[in-house]
Amino acid sequence: MWIRASLCISVVFAAVQTVKSNMDAKALSSSIAQFSAKFCNELDKTKNVVSSPLSAEFVLALVALGTEGQAHSELLTSLGIPSDEAIRSGFSSVSQKLKSVKGITLDIANKVYIKDGGYDLNEELKVDAVKVFDAGLEKVNFDDGAAAANTINQWVESKTNKKIKELISSDCLNQDTRLVLVNALYFKGQWSNQFDPNNTIEQPFHINEDTTVDVPMMYREGDYWYGESEELGVQLLRINYVGNEASMLILLPNEINGLNGVLDKLAGGYDLLAELDKMYETKVQVSIPKFKIETEIDLGELLPKLGIKQIFCRGDSGLTKMLNVPESIFVSKAVQKAFIEVNEEGAEAAAATAGLVRTRRMATLPHRVVVDRPALWCVMAGSLPLVTAVPVPGRAPRDEL
Question: How many domains is the chain partitioned into structurally?
Fold first, then answer.
């Protein structure tokens, strides 16, 4: 079974016309997990939705290094990161960690497009963009909106295996555009143990307590990492990809309409990482749906709900350390596009599974995890959530939020 996930986020900047400084790896992972939960909690869970809060964080963290005042405080608070130095050390570490994940295809790329002529990034921010975020820099003639959009969109397509198209529309670029920041992420993984297509059958999926639809459900019985949380009200299932360094984590609410309550608790700071540490390997009967989702998210509407408002203000955006010239700018457009596909394709791993040895609970019968209701799916690299999805089979696979 293959999982393919692609996404891209862009932030467009336009000109306005006349504590402890570092975080350890666990603290950073916890902050990323909580931001991810808050991000997902603001999405419309009645629709198919896929997103990457981590992709958004890469762009927002770079923006934070170019801000001052209220805008700077809002970004740090929302990201759950105490200082600029924590951003530099933390995201440099995250980037290196993600590059080293084995057994999957994972490409994360950052690009800064700058208006041609005398414009450039602030010198300190330019160093951070390259050194911390490994970002490429390119001058573009934004006066020609169609050509500039085509340049950006072609780069995005090349970094996402052509899964994300038309990220930027030409009408958002003009003579007032100064910067476009883009993060692109492409993930492709194969289950370490495949699902047999012959076991895929139509079964009911509960969209809510009143509505069910028949969807293709894949089935396999085998050894998986499993857990239960009474406080969250979920079953937890982790399905490894080849290499066993990346996995799909599924949080299945006990109740058909339980997902909103689960996300509320996670967004409120519930320690999901502690629950992951309690999971153990055991025999599980797994039934999960096939799905494909494409989503476009207007971050200009979502981010203010997370407390990030000032950077969108024309009069006082706080973006005073972005450019090499003293010009007032603001974020005029922020959008994320994402794609994920889950199906049976794949092959078994050729190597034995290695990992932390844990006590195995004795059981006479295997656990059953039947994902027949809305659940939270997270593509994980270790403890870092890369992509999150809430599949609602029966709904349109492509949505704009």
Answer: 2
Same domain, 322 and 182: yes
Same domain, yes or no: 151 and 216: no
Q: What is the domain-level CATH number for residue 160?
A: 3.30.497.10
What are phi and psi for residue 267, nearest 5 degrees? -65, -25
Residue 401 lies in a domain: no
CATH at 222: 2.30.39.10
Is the same domain home to 331 and 202? no
Provide the residue-wise pLDDT of the chain in tens; the chain has 401 residues.
444 444 445 555 555 444 445 567 778 888 999 999 999 999 887 778 888 888 889 989 999 999 999 999 999 999 999 999 999 999 998 888 888 888 888 888 888 888 888 888 889 999 999 999 888 888 899 899 999 999 988 998 888 888 888 888 888 888 888 888 888 888 888 888 889 889 999 999 999 899 999 999 999 999 999 999 999 999 999 999 888 888 999 999 999 999 999 999 998 989 999 999 999 999 999 999 988 888 888 888 999 999 999 998 887 889 889 888 888 888 888 888 888 877 664 222 211 111 122 223 334 468 999 999 999 999 898 888 888 888 886 555 554 44
Domain that holds residue 99: 2-189+293-340
Please indicate, yes or no, if residue 399 is contained in any of the structural domains.
no
Residue 369 CA, distance from chain mean position: 24
Do residues 173 and 313 share a domain? yes
Note whether residue 396 is domain-resident.
Answer: no
